[in-house]
Design brief:
about 425 residues, mainly beta, 2 domains, 19-stranded parallel β-sheet, 28 strands
Length: about 425
């Protein structure tokens, strides 16, 4: 085990990849593919002519995936060289029909100051391995070599003094080596999360005596097979990605917990797209201000949600949530699932979630704050409501309460028809 610091600084090297027509057949279609986009060439005359025609098509393509590569040809071999040193491309080759064959080889690997997988970018000259402690407190963006799923760290710490970016915006294609430039004309097809296993992750801790701006993008997919903790001390001041949170996180274990102290630039859990999935035991938000915002996507499997503040939105899978505890802030629930127990103690809850052929909430305990059921006109059922104090707002023609228990003893209730 060793402690490693990210420093960056490796020389930028252009990736070079060859595509070879290894057996010619006029009945074969030869293909080169980048990011799901394919250039096809039917076998013509011989292997050399076919390679030339394939190269011409690749070079003529205006699609950003292919335009990021300079294409040349010699005999039966097409060569692709990255336009920008330090920015990789991912090309595959295949055939259909006939007996022709094709092969592809990366002859010079991408390398540069933004690549996690380059040894000279690390303080001890060695890429992190199992049981290491990794500290990222300064240095350039980390854009490439992100698939580290076989590595199991002890700790991963990204301090608030790190103002670079980790990962890519999957909605926009990065167009230079440090991914500081991008285009909306194509989506990102390369790895966009740092995919790594770590028992303990700390983001945004500030060791300095002054304020620090933090990172505008941190995307981590924690592949830990057992228990893990993510603590977000603070996000960056703002997100570099329009309408997206500064921190996006994935995990895949029911013993994985997330503790959030401050999220002024937002945190998304399985929320970068509707196709993302994640499994967590607990999401706990201790920030008691209204500045934080945590959003979870419909692919999240979750056991417990608890919050003291923030403006948060919770969606989960159809398996539902066992416990939701709201002690402040605002929580909006969306989706088709059951909350087994919801405790509303303070703040505002907007339970918009429904459950097809079931209860949206099994037991709702109102002990303060406001439970507002008027923000959705979808019919839903709250099986048991124990209302001790606080405000309950709903349309009884939309929200059905099967069993309502009022506070015991002397209490005062005001019923007012909303405008």
């Amino acid at each position: 085990m060793s402690t490693k610091y990210w420093i960056g600084g490796a020389p930028a090297v252009k990736q070079i990849q060859t595509i070879s027509i290894t057996a010619f057949d006029a009945a074969t279609t030869y293909k080169a593919t980048i990011g799901g986009q394919t250039i096809s060439q039917v076998g013509t005359t011989d292997a050399n002519t076919t390679a030339t025609n394939l190269k011409n098509q690749l070079a003529a393509s205006t699609h950003p995936y292919f335009a990021a590569v300079v294409w040349t040809v010699a005999t039966n071999v097409v060569t692709g060289t990255a336009v920008d040193a330090g920015e990789p491309f991912v090309a595959t080759a295949s055939v259909t029909g006939g007996t022709g064959t094709i092969s592809t080889t990366v002859t010079t690997a991408n390398s540069g100051p933004n690549d996690w997988n380059v040894a000279t970018n690390w303080s001890d000259g060695v890429v992190p391995v199992d049981a290491d402690d990794v500290i990222i407190d300064r240095g350039p963006n980390i854009c490439w070599g992100l698939d580290q799923n076989t590595v199991d760290l002890t700790t991963l710490s990204v301090l608030q003094t790190y103002t670079g970016r980790i990962g890519l915006n999957k909605r926009r294609l990065a167009t230079n080596a440090d991914a500081s430039a991008d285009t909306a004309t194509a989506v990102e097809y390369r790895d966009d999360y740092l995919k790594i296993s770590s028992t303990k992750i700390d983001l945004g801790f500030n060791l300095t005596s002054s304020s620090a701006a933090g990172s505008g993008r941190i995307k981590i997919n924690n592949t830990k097979a057992g228990a893990s903790d993510l603590t977000v001390h603070a996000t960056g001041n703002s997100s570099v990605d329009t309408d997206l949170p500064a921190i996006r996180y994935l995990a895949n274990n029911a013993s994985a917990n997330v503790y959030i102290r401050s999220a002024q630039a937002g945190i998304g859990i399985a929320a970068d797209s509707f196709t993302e999935t994640s499994t967590l035991g607990k999401v706990s938000i201790s920030d008691n201000t209204e500045a934080s915002k945590v959003v979870t996507g419909p692919g999240l499997t979750l056991t417990t949600w608890e919050q003291n503040g923030g403006q948060n939105v919770m969606q989960v899978t159809s398996s539902g949530v066992t416990t939701v505890e709201v002690n402040g802030g605002q929580l909006t629930t969306e989706g088709d699932y059951t909350i087994t127990t919801m405790n509303a103690n303070a703040g505002t809850v907007r339970p918009n979630n429904i459950k097809t052929a079931g209860n949206a909430i099994t037991t709702l305990n109102i002990d303060g704050g406001t439970v507002d059921g008027t923000k959705s006109t979808r019919a839903r059922t709250w099986a048991t409501v124990n209302h001790n104090t606080g405000t309950r707002r709903l349309d009884k023609d939309i929200v059905t309460i099967t069993t309502l228990t009022q506070a015991a003893g002397l209490y005062e209730a005001t019923i007012r028809k909303a405008a």
